[in-house]
Amino acid sequence: KIVFGLPGGVLQQKIIKIAEEIKNFLSIEVDYFNEELTTLDARKILGKLKRKRDYKKRMEDAIAAAIILELYLERRKNV
């Protein structure tokens, strides 16, 4: 299964289209998770690190993706 973060706005429909193409091509299940505010959460985490700004910027998306997956799995556990 692949979990796609949905940002809302105009990008959301593009992401859903790509996810459906991947789903059909790989015959794999896909799911979606609202990713709003995960970038802000990632910035809070990175703000605590004593690293250079360019490192923090590069890591922002990776940490946001980890937050999305963690929240997704947590939600599934509580269902």
Entry keywords:
2 domains; globular; alpha+beta; single chain; 79 residues
Task: Give a written overview of the molecule.
There is one protein chain. The chain is an alpha+beta fold and 79 residues long. It has 2 domains: 1-35, no CATH class; 37-79. The protein is 66% helix and 13% strand. The chain is built from 3 helices and 2 strands, in the order βαβαα. Helix 2 (38-47) packs across helix 3 (53-77).
- Assembly status: single chain
Low-confidence residue ranges? none
How many structural units, i.e. domains?
2
> Biggest sheet: strands, sense, closure?
2 strands, parallel
* Apparent shape: globular
Please report the distance between the alpha carbons of the first and last residues: 17 Å
Structural class determined from secondary elements: alpha+beta
